[in-house]
Amino acid sequence: MAVRKALAGAAALVASVALAAPALASGPAHHDATRAALRAAVADGVPGVTATVTEGRGTWSATEGVGDLRRGTPRSPADRYRVGSITKTFVATVLLQLEAEGRLSLDDSVEKWLPGVVHGKGHDGSRITLRQLLNHTSGVFNYTEDEGFARTYFLKDGFLEHRYDTLAPRDLVATAMKHRPDFAPGDSWHYSNTNYVLAGMVVERVTGRPYGEEIRRRIIAPLGLRATSVPGTRTTLPRPSSRAYGKLALTATGPTYDVTELNPSLASSAGEMVSDSADLDRFYRALLGGRLLPPRQLKEMKTTVPAKDIPRAGYGLGLMDRELSCGVHVWGHGGGIHGSSSEAVTTPDGRHALALNLNGDWAGDTDAVIEAEFCG
Predict the structure, then answer these.
(1) Confidence (pLDDT) at 29
(2) Is there a contact between 259 and 248 (Cβ–Cβ < 8 Å)?
(3) Average pLDDT of the chain?
(4) Terminal C-alpha separation, the chain
């Protein structure tokens, strides 16, 4: 999910954040640039930000700004937040584990596992592979780009009326099937949340269990990710957590709304999960360190295609490779959903990881924080 993209957000100032003092954990001097980037995000208008770095056996955390605009309380390094599309890496990991177990092939067609689901307006599931879902080369229309869906779930009047609606994965796919594909399968690249809704449906068809249950069994429990959950239709955030804020508009100006409570079924397996920064560091370090996938599947996951319109980036299977300005490569994923913008990345060896969250979806430069941490 990418709410900021859906709302065409840019930057705005929230004057009330200046009332709260920053809360920073102590750490080595080489995090000074990261501290400055976190402060810059708040100066840009984000209510608050929380970040955790894990490097070797050491951990450093920092926060800036506020977690609650009304009370002025600060953010916490232990905040749990909606991670949006970071969910996609978890889903791709489960599908790759199923491939390693011989229960499916990434070259299987979508039609094989979901007969009749991807059909209409030129969509043809028999021509699309599971691999093409995972690397966004399927051409399947992105349901969050449907104008009616955006009005209902991203803009003020629609969101305030429908924030507690429960949507089934088939409802989301059906919205996409009202539109023509973006291109023929394999011909180009376009980020589509529909791809990962379908991937979650495939997990359930193959295993007989909801995708969230498979993530809990295969990833959350083995890694001891105590702050990580797949909420389903739960509308509140587990504690500790901050409030989440959005403009619910096509501009970054105007009133700010508390959008903390919502039914995350609107994101499904494309972006419904909740976690904290320490857990995300642990997950990506384990993944890149080879603890979750056999070498063959990890190599497949890291085989990238050019991510169109994203400079110096390649997209693998639910995992993005970014080359930073200093030449360092980081692997991970970003995620946006109402009132929440997150990033989680690690170096290729899994030793140096960063995860962060902004509790506003209209301002702040998460890329600048990544550049600051890894390039200084």
Answers:
(1) 56
(2) yes
(3) 93
(4) 29
Q: How far apart are CA 281 and CA 182, in angstroms?
A: 34
- Encoded tokens for 67: 């977690």
Tokens representing residue 371 in the block? 């550049």
- Three-state SS letters, the chain: CCHHHHHCCCCCCCHHHHHCCCCECCCCHHHHHHHHHHHHHHHCCCCEEEEEEEECCEEEEEEEEEEECCCCEECCCCCCEECHHHHHHHHHHHHHHHHHCCCCCCCCEHHHHCCCCCEECCEEHHHCEHHHHHCCCCCCCCHHHCHHHHHHHCCHHHHHHHCCCCCCHHHHHHHHCCCCCCCCCCCCCCCCHHHHHHHHHHHHHHHCCCHHHHHHHHHHHHHCCCCCECCCCCCCCCCCCCCCEECCCCCCCCCCEECCCCCHHHCHHHCCCEECHHHHHHHHHHHHCCCCCCHHHHHHHCCCEECCCCCCEEECCCCEEEECCCCCEEEEEEEEECCEEEEEEECCCCCEEEEEEECECCCCCHHHHHHHHHHC
User: Who's near 114: CB < 8 A, 6+ residues apart?
Assistant: 125, 198, 201, 202, 205
153-179 mean pLDDT: 98
Confidence band, pLDDT 50/70/90 cuts, at residue 108: very high
What positions carry a catalytic annotation? 85
Q: Is residue 13 within 8 Å of residue 45, measured between CB atoms? A: yes
Cα 300 to the center of its chain, rounded Å: 20
Strand pairing partners for 345?
Answer: 332, 354
For 216-228, what is each residue's pLDDT tens digit? 999 999 999 999 9
φ, ψ for residue 68 (rounded to 5)?
-145, 110
Phi, psi of 67 (to 5 degrees): -100, -15
The dihedrals phi and psi of 31, each to the nearest 5 degrees, come to: -95, 5
Amino acid, single-letter form, for residue 318? G
Question: Could you tell me the pTM of the whole model?
Answer: 0.93
